[in-house]
Structures are given as C-alpha cells and as structure tokens.
Amino acid sequence: MLEHPQFDPVAIHLGPLKIHWYGLTYLVGFIAGWWLGRIRSRKPWSPITEVQMGDLLFYIALGVILGGRFGYVLFYNFDQFLQDPLWLIRIWEGGMSFHGGLLGVMFAMWWYGRKIDRSFFQLADFIAPLVPVGLGAGRIGNFINGELWGRATDVPWGMVFPQAPDDLARHPSQLYQFALEGVVLFAVLWWFSAKPRPRMAVSGLFLALYGSFRFIVEFVRQPDPQLGYLAFDWVTMGQLLSLPMILAGLALVVFAYRRRTE
Q1: 181-201 confidence digits (pLDDT tens)
Q2: 154 lies in which domain range?
Q3: How far, in Å, CA of 120 to CA of 109, rounded?
Q4: How many domains is the chain built from?
Q5: Mean pLDDT of the chain, nearest integer
Q6: What is the Cα–Cα distance from 131 to 186, expressed in whole angstroms?
Q7: Where do the coiled-coil regions begin and end (predicted)?
C-alpha cells in the first residue's frame, strides 16, 4: 500500500498571489500543444500556417476553460451553482469537465475556421493529436491535488489519499488516465496522423479511443459524490458522456474511409 505524497497544491507563493500546480499543468499543456502544432503546421498538407497556430491556440484555450467549467457545472454540480453562482468563476478551486471542454473546443474551431475559410474537420483533424498532451498534463494536476481518486482496492499499488473520507487504499486512477488518455492516445494519434488520412478519420479515432479509455477507467474511478452511480451500481456520468463519443468516433472513421473508397 502506498501513501499519496500530499503535494502542496500551491506551486509558487508571491505574497497574496498563489500559483497552483493545477493551473501550471494547463499552461504546460497549452505550450506543448502550441509547440507540436507549429511542427505539424510545417507539413505540406497542414490547413494552417505557423502564425495561425498561435491564433488558433487562443481560441482553443478559451474553449477549454469556458467549456470545461460550464460543462462541469451543467453535468456534475448544477446544484452548487444554484446555491453559489459566483462559484462558477472560481476555477482555481477545481472542477473542470473534459466533455464540456471538448464542446468548447469544437465551437472554438468552428468559429476560427470561419474566419480563415477552413472547414471544421480540417482543423479538428489537425488539432486532435495535440489534445492528449493537455489531457495528460491535467491528470498530473489532479494527482498533485489528490483529487479524482479511484475506488477502494487491494492491489499492491493501491494508494491512500488523505483527502478521501477514509483510510482505504484506492486506485490511483489519475495516473491510469494520464497513461491512457495522455501517453497512449498521443502516441497512437501522432503516428496515425503522420501521413495524410481521409478527412474526419483522425478526429473519429480520437473520439473513439478517448471515449473507450475513459469508459474503462470509470470502472475503477470513484464517482462524484454528488452524483454517485446513475444505474446498476456501476454506470457513472463519465461513462454516460463517453458512450456517444465512442459511437460517433467509430461512425466518423467508417464514413471517412467509405467516402474515400467511393
């Protein structure tokens, strides 16, 4: 059995200003995505230039932050918002939803695509391989904060999280998600997108793989206490939101290759 290191969630103290590790992990994700995006933008098939990559990152950052926060409030904790509306803007207290952030990024890409006369899927296929970098960084932030822990377990690497309401060893599900949603997803998408693929194929593969990884990890991740299990004592909100992603992703991949064949 392991003990969580109990990191200080504040990375830097500058008088009254506190810079949290969670915020820094988002910054690392954005910077790494921008750097990798500039590399991809030099390819002859890239839909954007290196200069446009910086502009696109700005739109995506807005989509991640606004969509992620609104999604968390809507999908996971709407009651708390009704009791304390200002909680919506206190992002530093935690509470971001990937599925909400995804919707925000999709809207941002559509919006920016209209400005530069590019289709939604041109930008989506370009951006999809960069997203796992931010996902992986965010999961490290969750682990540093000691939040989003897993269910109780007796595996040798089970970890006791002081923030949990008991002293039970739990799955370090944040690290599982870092490995799957961050490392594995990035490796597969970067390799798959290294060559020109039918339009929508890269986006579809991203949706199908992320949805599958998230659906699987939810079996060992502790559900949000305000929601619990939605059905059958095992279905969680994360699984409910991930299932449409899997189906939509598979449909996009099939459609992309069928259209190319025709």
Answers
A1: 999 999 999 999 998 899 999
A2: 10-193
A3: 6
A4: 1
A5: 91
A6: 8
A7: none
